[in-house]
Amino acid sequence: MEATRMTAVILTMILAVTLLAYSPRIVQSIKAPSLEPTSIEENPQFLWANRWLDLLIQAFILFAVIAAVSAQLRSDGRSRW
Predict the structure, then answer these.
(1) pLDDT tens figures, 35-52
(2) pTM here?
């Protein structure tokens, strides 16, 4: 049970760091002067060239949710009924 809690804490911290790293507000506040903003209409290949990153983040979020729900629903060995 302690290992499950530690796993949930570690996954939560990694998820928080990932969300902060890719948060649009934070990224927009730190602008590099050499990079011009672009839109999907101007550069549609960007969406498919970086699809692996999107899928990786979604898979991690799904794994974190499954681990958290599993930890919440796990029986502690004592039966309430």
Answers:
(1) 566 676 777 776 677 777
(2) 0.40
